[in-house]
Amino acid sequence: MDLAARKAANLSVLRRQDPDIVDLLDQSSHAVVYSFDLSKAGWAKKGIEGTVFLIRRNTPPYYGIYILNRVSIDNYRLILTEDLVIEQQDEYIIYQTPNGTFSLSAPDDRDMDIDGPLYIQRIYVVYGFTNLEIARGYAAK
């Protein structure tokens, strides 16, 4: 399957989860979600791993991350909002929500760059924009 056909198929699958998705900005073939366990002072897998997509929506909030879970039938969604506390540490993105502290990793070496996976770098570019028109311009590239 060529790249355009694969993108169209993935977009179709994701739109069943969220019909407001209009574009896939980036993806990585494998990512894992961890949660920080305070009682053990360490990270624990959440039972979510699979292909991760950086998506753009046509309604606010405009950007998010979806993981098509290979471990269970429950897929994962993280909408990028202004109140999300997010930071990058190597190939991990660590973020804090009202439900706790989580980490998202992408161990696929093909997606790695000097500063971590390319999709994490793109999250920072998209997430860092405050002007929506500039962000849409970036997403169109």
From TrEMBL:
Keywords: Cytoplasm, mRNA processing
Localization (cell): Cytoplasm
InterPro entries: Dcp1, PH-like_dom_sf
Protein's organism: Mortierella isabellina
Protein name: PH domain-like protein
Family, as annotated: Belongs to the DCP1 family.
Molecular function as annotated in GO: enzyme activator activity; mRNA binding
Cross-referenced Pfam families: DCP1
GO process terms (BP): deadenylation-dependent decapping of nuclear-transcribed mRNA; deadenylation-independent decapping of nuclear-transcribed mRNA; mRNA processing
Chief place of localization: cytoplasm
A GO-annotated cellular component: P-body
Top-rank lineage group of the source organism: Eukaryota
